[in-house]
Amino acid sequence: MKKDNLIHARTCVYNVNYHFVWSVKYRHKLLNKRIEKRLKEICSEIAEDKEFIIRDFEVGEQDHVHVFVSAHPKIAPSYIVKMLKGITARKLFIEFPEYIDYYNNDRIKQKLAGMSPIKYRTHASQLAA
User: Fold this and answer.
1) Is 40 buried (19+), middle (13-18) or exposed (0-12) by CB count in 10 A?
2) Tens of pLDDT along 65-122?
3) Predicted confidence (pLDDT) per residue in 20-33, tens digit
4) What share of the chain is helix, strand, coil (3-state, %, to 5)?
5) Cβ atoms of residues 56 and 68 within 8 Å
6) φ, ψ at 61 (rounded to 5°)
């Protein structure tokens, strides 16, 4: 291990990194460029506030997120995921209500059962653009 990768804290020396991946509900292709940009901004704010570092952030295929994080050993990985997923979801729900209204209703159950009307499919393609 290179010594320049080590972080010196008051009581320890560490290099703790985590790779987190999470997906959008039902793997819908929701994460367009506009949402991706805002998602990165929100995650950066959270990292600064909660005192960990986002080394890399990437959205894959518009339906999942990869985050590579470096954190102090006292910060639990579950806490980092809880903060990233919870706060980003809450803020994105407020800022992009058109996606939430579309994807959180009974139409989802019909679509999963194979009964998706054409008007919903065209609306989904317009949202993904």
Assistant:
1) middle
2) 999 999 999 999 999 999 999 999 899 888 988 776 666 665 555 655 555 555 555 6
3) 999 987 788 888 89
4) 50, 20, 30
5) yes
6) 50, 30
> Per the structure block, which two tokens stand in for 1?
């291990």
- Own/partner pairs for 80-84, CB < 8 Å, 24+ apart? 80/18, 80/20, 80/50, 80/52, 81/20, 81/22, 83/46, 83/50, 84/20, 84/43, 84/46
CA–CA distance, 75 with 23 (Å, rounded to integer): 23
Beta strands 64-70 and 53-60, pairing class:
antiparallel
Note the pLDDT of residue 31. Answer: 87
Q: Which CATH superfamily is domain 3-95 in?
A: Transposase IS200-like (3.30.70.1290)
Q: Is the pLDDT confidence value at 63 over 70?
A: yes
Q: Are 18 and 77 in contact (CB under 8 A)?
A: yes
Q: What is the pTM of this model?
A: 0.74
Domain boundaries, the chain: 3-95, 96-129
